[in-house]
Amino acid sequence: MTGSRLDMKQAGARLGIFLAGAVSVGVILVALMAAGVLPVKVSETRIVSGDAAASAQDDGDPSGAGSSGQTGSSETSARVGTLTPAQIYERSSSGVVEVLATFGSGEGFIGPQSGSSQALGSGFVVSEDGYILTNAHVVESDGLRADAVTVTFKDPDGQSSAIDATIAGVDQGSDVALLKVDPKKAGTLDPLELGDSDAVKVGEPVVAIGNPLGYDFTLTEGIVSAVDRSLEAPNGMIISNGIQTDAAINEGNSGGPLIDSSGRVIGINEQIASQSGGSQGLGFAVPINTAIDVMGQLKDDGRVSYAWLGIQGQTIAAAVAEALGLPAVDGVLVVDVTADSPAARAGLRGGTQQAELQGEVYVTGGDVITAFDGEKVTSMDDLVAAITEHKPGDGVEVTIVRGGETRTVQATLSERPAEL
What we know:
Elements: E1 17-18, E2 37-39, H1 74-80, H2 85-92, E3 96-103, E4 107-108, E5 111-112, E6 117-125, E7 131-134, H3 136-139, E8 140-141, E9 144-145, E10 148-154, E11 160-171, E12 176-180, H4 183-186, E13 205-210, E14 218-232, E15 238-245, E16 257-260, E17 265-272, E18 283-287, H5 288-301, E19 307-308, E20 311-316, H6 318-323, E21 331-337, H7 342-346, E22 353-357, E23 360-364, E24 368-372, E25 375-376, H8 380-388, E26 395-402, E27 405-412, E28 414-415
């Protein structure tokens, strides 16, 4: 296995391994941006490797580990509830595809020219007219979009068929891409039913279907381990409301569906956290509600716009604030305000000095955001999620603490600049 998004043989204790398939472009994007809010530090919900504290992040696997998941025991059936894993696979696998993206392709006298590379991932059909969802990092890496994409279906009889697909749109901010195939060439398409990721509960049984390590159309099972995780997209933006699962997810599962026990897709499998580079029961999926919104914008406009406030911020807990001599509130310290941004026009103020507490540096002297458009904000994750739920042009109320006094300012969000 060569040229993966992060070489799995050298992964060691690294995290941030995007599920880019069995063979892929070896590039990692590290821009630290987040929906108009640039955190000063890695947030608490990021998973840290080694012996450090854990909390939420990425993927890949050289080991080939992972279960087939197609067990028929009474224990498994009881855990799954409405549908068994076998039943879910039977009704859903024909709507799952293998995605093969070719980068830098070129034909010579004896085949593809040297210098080309490929990424293998997964995807799933979402409409009878040929639309397929997958991950952005499967078909685009470091600004390089795949020259050719082939998707492979497997029918209920086990027969495989491959056809060309076009890239209808890519959004690095959510790690979602939309592919399109000609229904006439694809034959009968079996769209998967989409669920509601906002309704997902911890402990729910789930299955993942995809192509881990090139083992095509593999099913693994597990539960929802956590919700509301903050995931880092390929371009550094934060994907809010991520779903964590212990279903085995490995390199090649990227873009495949995470399905609940009623057979509905609740997420797009995207990344794992790992100390070894292998699957360790910490998989993460982009929430399907986010993917649905992105898909609609890609269909309509071919691009996705994000609301932007224009600050750099830092989570602060009430106990820490009190220890630093600040008003004892949970919220977000405004570290810096971008010139001519919605935050600047609203009069928000950034920090002016630094203070250290137990080895952590805090930028103080600026506003502390405690609520955004009526919703309580206690962390950077909360603020990022709140901004993400809005559109450019939306007017919002931002509640801040300044000089010991609580006040509310009005801001009109704008579109996040492309250069951030």
